[in-house]
TrEMBL record:
Zinc as UniProt keyword: no
Organism: Acer saccharum
Sequence similarity: Belongs to the PPR family. P subfamily.
InterPro entries tied to this protein: PPR-containing_protein, PPR_rpt, TPR-like_helical_dom_sf
Gene3D superfamilies: Tetratricopeptide repeat domain
The name this protein goes by in its record: Pentatricopeptide repeat-containing protein
Length: 180
């Protein structure tokens, strides 16, 4: 809780001190305390520190979970480092941490933002194949990716597909079609 408060107020150094002090005093660090500090590092753009912290979890007999990986994937996507985001995604799967809707949507959106709708499409197919629920955010990211590379007709077909999934287009859907 204290770590989270320091991270939210931008006092990452204090959060790190509390984290280290917990360890020195014999209070076990938890997956939640690790993840909170990883969020803090990612919000400051300190992705290498976030990855180092993830890699150090084993010393406390902890394993990264879906929240850990989603945080890192989002951090890398936000910085436009899609190769590293994809590397985290691969590591996640190799550690038998199951990607969820948020994982896929973050990656699809990241690739769409960089005009790599093809990779977004492959991720979408994998998502469906793995039985992960597709939502309006998934479609909006795919539509944006298609529009960014001039495939507006294909994007319009995706809008029509929304009915099949009982999904309703929203402002972001139309914004992607117009400005993509």
């Amino acid at each position: 809780m204290v770590i989270g408060a320091f991270c939210k107020s931008g006092k990452l150094e204090n959060a790190v001190e509390v984290f280290k002090e917990m360890d020195r005093m014999g209070f076990g660090t938890t997956i939640a305390s690790y993840n909170t500090l990883i969020v803090g590092y990612c919000n400051k753009g300190l992705l290498s520190s976030a990855v180092k912290l993830k890699n150090s979890m084993g010393k406390d007999n902890l394993q990264p979970n879906v929240i850990t990986f989603n945080t890192l994937v989002y951090g890398f996507c936000k910085e436009g480092k899609l190769h590293e985001a994809n590397r985290m995604f691969s590591e996640m799967k190799s550690m038998n941490v199951t990607p969820n809707n948020l994982t896929y949507n973050t990656l699809i959106n990241g690739f769409s933002q960089t005009s790599n709708g093809e990779m977004g499409g492959r991720l979408y197919e994998e998502m469906v194949r793995n039985g992960i629920k597709v939502d309006i955010l998934t479609y909006n990211a795919l539509i944006l990716g298609l529009c960014k590379v001039g495939k507006r007709k294909k994007a319009a077909y995706l809008v029509k597909d929304l009915d099949k999934g009982n999904l309703v287009p929203n402002a972001s859907t139309f914004s992607a079609l117009i400005t993509g």
